[in-house]
Amino acid sequence: MSHHIIEFRNVSFTYPDGTAALRDVSFRITHGEAVGIVGPNGAGKTTLIMLMNGLILPGGGEVMVGEVPVTRKTLSEIRRKVGVVMQNPDDQLFMPTVREDVAFGPSNMELPPEVIEQRVDEALREVGALHLKDRPPHRLSGGQKKAVAIAGVIAMKPDILVMDEPTAGLDPGARRQLIEIVKGFRHSRIIATHDLDLVLEVCERCILLHGGAIKRDGPPGEILLDAQLMQESGLALPLSATV
Predict the structure, then answer these.
(1) d(C-alpha 168, C-alpha 117), whole Å
(2) Exposed, middle or buried: residue 173 (CB in 10 Å: 0-12, 13-18, 19+)?
């Protein structure tokens, strides 16, 4: 299942203002892995996420999805394989109803209407939001918006699910619901987050970024519960480790 693999090969990226966001980053994520990307503000997490489906392109090195390089020419194919849920669901929800929002991606894939409707229902059911189908997105709670944004990505049936700060702004109940949604996705999952407890619960691998480079890559418990490493990286221990 090579299409479920995402690989960074010596990737660097510098913004137009001269900010070096990533420096010579290399890693490989394979089928079914759940990987947490952690690091302090400015470490390069969001840049990494945007490179994964071509929202930006590397300044050096190469990003691969399966055997396909992420380039301007391959963007449509890459975005069918890699689904990204952005931190703010309002960036993804813009249609009059939830149904239309979730149908937007499949519609752009030129699927038959009956297949689109089936995908919408399946995706909303998977995130526990089928009852919201006819609601306007702007009338939803923060947790409901997150669920619908995820449904919109799932409806496209991506091989790889990428999420940027998925639990940001959620109350404890909505956070627990989101964790169960992420656990239920059976393909590759990549989660960039400050929620270290989420990584401990959901992920079997953790990549720690610091200063635009990979500082550590390994089991979450070995990285996130290392007090000295966390302090050196500008992070605090997970809340579960301090109570």
Answers:
(1) 30
(2) exposed
pLDDT digits (tens, 9 = 90+) for 207-236: 999 999 999 999 999 999 999 999 999 999
* Domain 2-238 class in CATH: alpha beta
Q: Domain map of the chain by residue range? A: 2-238
CA distance 133 to 136: 9
pLDDT digits (tens, 9 = 90+) for 147-166: 999 999 999 999 999 999 98
Over residues 53-76, the pLDDT tens digits come to 999 999 999 999 999 999 999 998
